[in-house]
Design brief:
Number of strands: 12
Strand order of the largest sheet: 7-8-9-6-5-4-3-2-1-10-11-12
Largest sheet: 12 strands, mixed
Order of helices and strands: EHEHEHEHHEHEHEEEEEEHHHH
Bound molecules: S-adenosylmethionine, iron/sulfur cluster
Number of helices: 11
Distance between the termini: 28 Å
Shape: globular
Radius of gyration: 19 Å
Helix content: 25-40%
Length: 330
């Protein structure tokens, strides 16, 4: 039975977990060129602590976990952690978000894990030079190779494309063309100010609507039904194998159906991407909290889930949104 319900009647059944704040890339929209201030290792949750938090959440009705970061595959023995999590009989689905540069040797082992269903691969350009400029690392061949391997694998592949004004907006249609023959769900994400510095100066504001209009300039799209809690609005194009979606991450029109909570790599509990962290789970556990105490804590924390991302942002006490997405877990 799902016991995690917030004050707006939203049932929480999905947790996004950042397994590390470390990353092998330096995407412009996520962090500065020199990287972010990394937490000392002992401040990161151990896999055992993560397993325990997730287990308690599943006892309260959470069914799905997304593992993200930082780059999950940078963390030593991440695949071992996937195996460990698979043993949780109350968990139905494990999804992963990755930049794909390190995962090709692990695809075969991941395919064997029944609960790992979806891989979200982040790729913001199909041009090597531009990809290098965006990520500040020359790893496009590896990432594209991962894309091709995953497309052929038994895993369901989604591509995350952060739409960056004047940088990759000229490639939106190329990404849509990719869905003609490839069985992928391409999802365009509105850029948010989570880059370690704050709001970037933008020449144009690429909102959900503008992205959709750009796609419609060449393709006839029809909307497909999505689960209410889906982060994207999804579309199909006739005779295309794959689908497309747009995630209104910044304009935040999806909050009323939100079913998610987040835990950062340092064990901070978040009710919303835009809040500034509501509870330090790591210290609570390390000070000896029982599973019963953890359960009661979660039940009370979700009651504080704000109605939407704008309220969460307004309630922040640590100032404007500037933290890097790699510390929050995107
Ligand atoms: N390193 C992995 C990756 O890039 O897929 C996982 C972590 S990353 C923080 C998760 C997702 O957040 C990626 O798809 C990334 O493109 C997205 N992201 C990061 N910073 C963002 C920002 N400022 N606005 C919108 N999306 C962002
Ligand atoms: Fe790393 Fe992902 Fe952030 Fe890029 S978006 S710097 S790959 S954590």
């Amino acid at each position: 039975m799902n016991k995690l319900k917030d004050n707006f009647g939203r049932q929480i059944n999905y947790v996004r977990f950042a397994v590390t704040d470390r990353c092998n890339l330096r995407c412009q929209y996520c962090m500065p060129a020199h990287g972010i201030d990394l937490a000392p290792r002992q401040e990161l949750l151990t896999f055992k602590e993560m397993y325990r938090i997730i287990r308690v959440l599943t006892e309260l009705g959470v069914k799905k976990v997304r593992l993200t970061g930082g780059e999950p595959f940078v963390r030593k023995d991440f695949v071992g952690f996937l195996e460990m999590l698979s043993d949780n009989d109350l968990l139905d689905v494990i999804n992963i978000t990755t930049n794909g540069a390190l995962i090709s040797p692990h695809i075969a082992s991941i395919e064997k894990l029944e609960k790992v269903k979806n891989i979200n691969l982040s790729i913001d350009s199909l041009q090597r030079d531009k990809f290098t400029k965006i990520t500040r690392r020359d790893v496009f061949p590896e990432v594209y190779n991962t894309l091709e391997l995953l497309e052929k694998s038994s895993l369901h592949l989604k591509l995350n494309v952060v739409v960056q004004a004047g940088v990759n907006t000229d490639e939106i249609l190329d990404f849509v063309r990719l869905t003609k023959d490839k069985n992928v769900a391409v999802r365009f994400i509105e850029e948010m100010p989570f880059n370690g510095k704050g709001q970037r100066k933008m020449t144009e504001n690429w909102t959900f609507k503008k992205i959709l209009n750009e796609i419609k300039s060449e393709f006839k799209v029809s909307e497909v039904n999505s689960e209410p809690s889906s982060t994207s609005r999804n579309y199909k194009i006739e005779k295309h194998t794959g689908t497309i979606g747009i995630i209104p991450a910044f304009t935040r029109t999806i909050c009323s159906d939100c079913n998610r909570i987040r835990v950062t790599s340092k064990g901070t509990f978040k009710n919303c991407l835009f809040d500034d962290g509501v509870f330090n789970l790591r210290d609570f556990i390390r000070n000896g909290a029982s599973n019963e105490a953890l359960k009661n804590l979660f039940l009370s924390l979700v009651k504080r889930k704000p109605e939407n991302g704008f309220v969460a942002e307004a309630n922040r006490t640590k100032g404007n949104v500037t933290e890097s997405m790699s510390t929050i877990g995107g």
